[in-house]
């Protein structure tokens, strides 16, 4: 280890539009695809830490998925004659050196050296945005493209979706909603909240379009989720909203524990999904 002071650990919150990225995780090697983490670590190189700075991401998101607020911890070891960065200075410095306009660091906190951004999270909330009344995706306002799933239907049976969502609440084996490739050791998760509600009119929709277009929000909260669990639950609840499934069938799908069942073949598009928040005990 090079000469320097004791490393200081920070928790940073950051947001991004995921359209241009191959997910949040860094892409190593010579591949052309790049993750959000690559840009964060590139910005951190300019901080002149004695040791290379690595971001440990709280919540992995796939290509095309956005984050209103994700989190990560990192260690910075400055020279022994320099004090640790304050959280405010660290936030400003990272934003100054970030080279992609779709990423922004929101806030930083000093945390103990044993703190772990992934393991210490007590809650994660995902938001999924839907639009109805759109005959084709290219009919969406340009400002809403890649921000929601445009459904060709004119309306959704929200009451049926809410009824179906109740079957998902609580602690269950969510194998039926897990995609292949999940690193999770157990498929058991506790879903604390699943809601479906109309969104206010989008400020990006012209008045003459607003009579047809309606936006909807779905939110899911748990301490953690399985790989693509939220997008698969969303697809099934949308099928209920469109009348293709009955609410009681969602319970049967859950209890089947079969990720390859005939009703689980569809996964909601990545571009409608946002990681809304990651919460920690005693922090923001």
Description:
- The two termini are 33 Å apart.
- It is globular and about 65 Å long.
- By secondary structure, the chain is of the alpha+beta class.
- It has helices spanning 36-44, 87-97, 158-166, 207-210, 229-241, 247-256; strands spanning 8-16, 56-57, 66-76, 103-111, 123-132, 149-150, 170-173, 188-198, 214-222, 273-279.
- Strand 2 (56-57) and strand 3 (66-76) form a beta hairpin.
- The mean pLDDT is 92.
- The protein folds into two domains: 8-110, Pseudouridine synthase I, catalytic domain, N-terminal subdomain (Alpha-Beta Plaits), CATH 3.30.70; 121-280, Alpha-Beta Plaits (2-Layer Sandwich).
- Strands 1, 2, 3, 4, 5, 6, 7, 8, 9 and 10 form a ten-stranded mixed beta sheet that branches.
